[in-house]
């Protein structure tokens, strides 16, 4: 669904000076909500006051960084009055040097929404017309082609955001309904006119953290879902391995008060029937990838509130430079474009998420190995009789899951420690926040691939366990998940290719089709 297709009765996200949530940005990104700029006269007057204050300063020959001076290290270069109006257009023009894959439609919508959120705070000296133009792009689903590579995260996401600035002015290209179209043509056909940027507006659009923040919002949403999905997979792995549910006892977890970890253990208690721990012959202590799963998943569960706070604070900040304090008639030069909080959150998130991949990879290794899976066939093959000799079950899938895990783990090196000195040593300490966010999304992608491999594995494992022990009791949660998986994955008996099912499961995962825990 495209945002332009939404009906008036569907969700709208209003942009003004009020606080937005990660979920607001994610809903716009996925086309589930429509961006709406507030009509409130007080809000619009506050925006206009900033632009008018800058106009007055210019008339009074005030010196304003990036308005009457060059940018960055060129701040000592004074711009002649007759050239001031051209400066913003030069800013986005010379920053048109991004490379790499283009941001996908969801990411691009999130970028537009994040930049609109920041500029709507009223401290950037921009006009209402600029905010309306960004809103118009979102409502018409005209998505600037934004290269993903070329930002060091301070002075903000200059190069990728230059592609937004250019499109607002009718330059470069957009994606419209999956096709690449010249921005000028797309604006005209949408009934929109190209902007002529006011003196500070090029800097206001580009000199901020919108790209890294947008990607962080999407990463948070995916990580939060993976926290729950990995827990459900762990429960099904425990059933497959005939595990000991006492490992998740409430009293046991009450003595180690990490709330997120305790929540994971409580979810596992919902999934594992109370009687599962009472049967005789169970191993006293399951291996760590089962017994310590709440401790592994719980790290991410406990970090998520901190990540949310950092991401939402950045989302709801004025993060360009200079800050325009129109009420007190001051121009404040600082460094709010610096993306350190997002960089730290993304570096931390990718570490915790990669640990989920590693956990699931270890669980799979136990389940497919007949030495450790407590009586199930090697590689969880469902074939019996003479043909069992030529069928190999999940042998290759385990190799692939291990490869995806290794790649995810390799990417956990923190990007934020690789600061570079750039732009004639003006930007001599930078955040690398956008690289950290891109790394985090790649780790999430790989971990999701491991997760769908595990979904095939635990679906097969629980099915086989039920065959070897018809009396095994499944909780309503597990029954519901098994029924959902059975619609997408047949039992694996005769060898078959699995990539079509893996790809379909990835679609379901990324659309968060499976309802997990309240």
Structure, explained:
It comes from Undibacterium nitidum. With 518 residues, the chain is mostly helical. The protein folds into two domains: 3-208, Fumarase/aspartase (N-terminal domain) (Fumarase C, Chain B, domain 1, Orthogonal Bundle), CATH 1.10.275; 216-510, Fumarase C, Chain A, domain 2 (Up-down Bundle), CATH 1.20.200.10. It is built from 18 helices and nine strands. The strands form four sheets. It has a three-stranded antiparallel β-sheet. A two-stranded parallel sheet has the order 1-2. A two-stranded antiparallel sheet has the order 3-5. The mean pLDDT is 93.
Features of the shown structure:
three-stranded antiparallel beta sheet; 2 domains; Fumarase C, Chain A, domain 2; 6% strand; 518 residues; two-stranded parallel sheet; elongated; Fumarase C, Chain B, domain 1; 18 helices; 9 strands; mainly alpha
Briefly, what is this?
About 50% of the residues lie in helices and about 5% in strands. It has about 525 residues and is mainly alpha-helical. The strands form four sheets. A three-stranded antiparallel sheet has the order 4-6-7.
């Amino acid at each position: 669904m495209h945002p332009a297709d939404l009906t008036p009765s569907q969700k709208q996200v209003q942009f003004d000076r009020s606080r937005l949530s990660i979920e607001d940005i994610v809903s716009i990104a996925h086309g589930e909500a429509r961006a709406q700029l507030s009509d409130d006269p007080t809000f619009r007057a506050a925006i206009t006051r900033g632009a008018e204050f800058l106009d007055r300063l210019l008339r009074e020959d005030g010196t304003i960084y990036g308005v009457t001076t060059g940018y960055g290290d060129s701040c000592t270069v004074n711009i002649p009055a007759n050239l001031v109006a051209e400066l913003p257009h030069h800013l986005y023009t010379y920053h048109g040097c991004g490379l790499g894959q283009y941001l996908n439609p969801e990411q691009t919508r999130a970028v537009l929404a994040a930049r609109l959120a920041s500029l709507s705070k009223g401290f950037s000296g921009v006009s209402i017309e600029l905010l309306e133009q960004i809103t118009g792009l979102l409502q018409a689903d005209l998505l600037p082609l934004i290269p993903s590579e070329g930002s060091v995260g301070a002075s903000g996401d200059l190069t990728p955001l230059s592609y937004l600035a250019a499109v607002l002015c009718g330059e470069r290209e957009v994606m419209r309904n999956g096709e690449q179209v010249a921005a000028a043509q797309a604006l005209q056909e949408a009934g929109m006119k190209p902007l002529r940027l006011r003196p500070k507006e090029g800097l206001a659009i580009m000199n901020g953290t919108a790209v890294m923040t947008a990607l962080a919002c999407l990463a948070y949403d995916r990580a939060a879902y993976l926290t729950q999905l990995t827990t459900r997979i762990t429960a099904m792995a425990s059933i497959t391995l005939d595990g000991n549910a006492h490992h998740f006892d409430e009293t046991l977890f009450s003595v180690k008060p990490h709330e997120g970890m305790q929540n994971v253990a409580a979810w596992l208690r919902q999934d594992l029937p109370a009687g599962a721990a009472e049967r005789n012959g169970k191993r006293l202590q399951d291996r760590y990838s089962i017994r310590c799963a709440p401790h592994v998943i719980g790290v991410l569960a406990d970090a998520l509130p901190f990540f949310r706070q950092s991401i939402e604070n950045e989302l709801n900040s004025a993060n360009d430079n200079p800050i325009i304090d129109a009420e007190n008639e001051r121009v404040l030069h600082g460094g709010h474009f610096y993306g350190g909080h997002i960089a730290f959150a993304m570096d931390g998130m990718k570490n915790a998420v990669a640990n989920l991949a590693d956990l699931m990879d270890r669980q799979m290794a136990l389940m497919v190995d007949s030495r450790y899976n407590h009586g199930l066939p090697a590689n969880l093959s469902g074939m019996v009789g003479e043909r069992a000799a030529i069928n190999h079950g999940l042998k290759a899938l385990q190799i692939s899951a291990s490869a995806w895990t290794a790649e995810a783990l390799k990417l956990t090196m923190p990007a934020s420690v690789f600061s570079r000195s750039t732009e004639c040593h003006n930007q001599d300490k930078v955040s690398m926040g956008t690289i950290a966010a891109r790394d985090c999304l790649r780790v999430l992608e790989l971990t999701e691939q491991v997760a769908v491999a595990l979904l095939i594995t635990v679906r097969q494992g629980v099915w086989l366990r039920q065959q070897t022990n018809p009396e095994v009791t499944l909780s309503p949660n597990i029954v519901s998940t098994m029924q959902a998986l059975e619609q997408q994955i047949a039992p694996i008996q005769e060898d078959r290719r699995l990539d079509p099912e893996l790809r379909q499961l990835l679609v379901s995962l990324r659309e968060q089709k499976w309802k997990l825990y309240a």
